[in-house]
Amino acid sequence: MENIRTRVVRFTDQTGQIHIGLDEGEVIKRLPGEWRIADLLRVRVDTMREMVATASAEIPAESVRLLAPLDGLTEVWAAGVTYSRSRDARVEETTEPTVYDRIYEAERPELFFKAPAWRVVTDGQPIAVREDSAINVPEPELGLVINAFGEIAGYVVVNDVSSRSIEGDNPLYLPQAKIYAGSCSVSSGIVPVWLTDIAALEIGMWVYRAGAVVFEGRTSTSSFHRPAAGLVPYLTSFMRFPDGVVLSTGTGIVPELDFNLAPGDTVEIRIENVGSLTNTVLRTAEWLDSVGS
Ligand code: DO4
Ligand code: MG
Which is the closest atom of ligand 1 to the Cα of 110? Predict the structure, then answer.
């Protein structure tokens, strides 16, 4: 899988101060002033590109801690049933199959709120499964980073961790199946839109348990049922996102119903030319005790 190394990142330095910069592998070039990721998403892509080009002061990559690349008022939303595999899996798990068949064919996509910036975790931090859900799954998804003007500014890897049995019981439980502590993880760097093309990117996911791979799946963004960019106007035409928004584009990899994501598992997701995301799973109560929000 090919990978672009240049990514816009948010990090803490050795004094604990938060900065943003351009990660180029060995070094991170800091952006001037106290800019936040949100400031890059308040402007059009051409201005963002000029701002990113001013990155200069070099910091060794090993001396920083990367944070989730979202701050301010940025939100994460997600689309559902955008690949045939997702439609088939929902039809199998639900008490209401026609809802999913209809949304797959409908012009208007399924979009739902996932998390505010402050509730998002990143690479190396724990994710969580709810104690009141019998079947849980990780969902590896390409995230579109969209600015305040509705333009796609970059791409991230998203894990839309989901409580499959809660949604399966009744689709009206979707917010509880999708929005809870530790359910949203985003890779620690944003690949700027001008560096990659998302037409046919390979996506892979591996779940490790006690050192062994217990699930492995692959897909490609070329299998999208609808163009990812076509989802954006449904979100941005009817609401303002002054600090931008991440729109996760749905999963094309869903394990069989006999698979259950368990506390202690590690989930690794890779998207070609976008990045990787690795998280270990806790129960929500443990997650709330250790991470706290
Ligand atoms: O309707 C359920 C949500 C489906 C979803 O999250 C996905 O397809 O990725
Ligand atoms: Mg999803």
Answer: 1
- Give 245's strand partners: 75, 146
| Ligand 2 centroid, distance to 80 Cα (angstroms) | 5
Q: How many CB atoms lie within 10 A of CB 168?
A: 21
Q: Which residues are CB-neighbours of 255 under 8 A, at least 6 positions away?
A: 137, 207, 215, 217
Sequence letter at residue 16:
G
**Is the distance from the beta carbon of residue 90 to the nearest atom of ligand 1 less than 6 Å?**
yes
> Measuring from atom 2 of ligand 1, which residue has the nearest CA?
80
Rounded distance, CA 43 to CA 148, Å?
7
What DSSP letter does each residue of 180-231 carry, written as one string? STT-EEE-SEEEEGGG---TT-EEEEEEEETTEEEEEEEEEGGG-SS-GGGG
Q: Where are the domains of the chain?
A: 7-67, 75-290
Q: Atom 5, ligand 1: which residue's CA is nearest?
A: 80
Say yes or no: CB of residue 153 within 6 Å of ligand 1.
no
For residue 114 and ligand 1, the question of a CB distance below 6 A is answered with no
Question: Percent of the chain, pLDDT > 70?
Answer: 99
Fold classified for 7-67: SH3 type barrels. (2.30.30)
Average pLDDT of the chain?
Answer: 95
CB of 86 sitting under 6 A from ligand 1: yes
**pLDDT exceeds cutoff 80 at 2:** no
The class (CATH top level) of 75-290 is: alpha beta
Smallest CA separation from ligand 1 atom 7, residue? 80
Distance CA 35, CA 269 (A): 29
DSSP label at 237?
Answer: S
The CA distance from 157 to 65, in Å, is 18
What residues form DSSP beta bridges with 78? Answer: 112, 248
**For residue 120, which of 191, 22, 40, 187 has the smallest C-alpha distance?**
187
pTM over cut 0.90: yes
